Structure formats: C-alpha cells, structure tokens
Amino acid sequence: MDIHKIKIENQHYLDIAMLRKRFEVRKCERDYKVGDLLELHRYNEGKPLHNEVLYVKVIHMILGGMYGIENGYCVMSIKVVDI
Predict the structure, then answer these.
(1) Residue 63 DSSP SS3
(2) What is the CATH number of the domain that holds 44?
(3) By C-alpha distance, which of 83, 79, 82 is closest to 34?
C-alpha cells in the first residue's frame, strides 16, 4: 500500500468529505493501485487552504483506454478512511 499526496480543489474536497463524491479522476502519472491511500490536501485557486488533509482508500480502478476514459487517465472509486 502506497500513500499518494495530492492537491485537490476546495469544492471537490468538500464533496468527498460530505460523501457526495466517491471517485477521483486523475492522470495516471503515479503508480496508483487498489488499496492505496490518497492523502488529499485542500486547495483553493492553487493555494493551500486551512492545512486540512483527508484520507481516502482506493477501492476500485478503471484505467484509461477503455469505457470512454482517455489513455493516460484513471478513475478511482474511493472511500473516506480514518488514520
């Protein structure tokens, strides 16, 4: 299991924290895998916001190149976790 530190815009951060958003679409420039943790750092217009961090676990992935997802991208189903 790896931990990936990721910047995320405020609205998406809040949607994940409120359990309204349960996926993350990212460029696959890291070696994301099911079971990894994403350490989400809250940003607003490119600047850190409140130094808040949210942890989510990758529970499912679809890699690009199929199902209408562009090559080089992935869609990760995520679940908020406590550490």
Answers:
(1) strand
(2) 2.30.130.30
(3) 79
Q: Name the domain count of the chain.
A: 1
Report which DSSP code applies to 32. -
Domain that holds residue 55: 3-80
Distance, C-alpha 42 to centroid of its chain: 11
* DSSP at 22: -
Under a CB-based contact definition with an 8 Å cutoff, are residues 40 and 8 in contact?
yes
* pLDDT exceeds 90 at position 52: no
Query: What proportion of the chain, given as a percentage, has pLDDT over 90?
Result: 88
pTM for the structure as a whole: 0.90
- Stretch 19-29: mean pLDDT, rounded? 96
Cα dist. 57→36, 71, 78 in Å?
Answer: 6, 23, 5
Kind and range of the H or E element at 16? helix 10-17
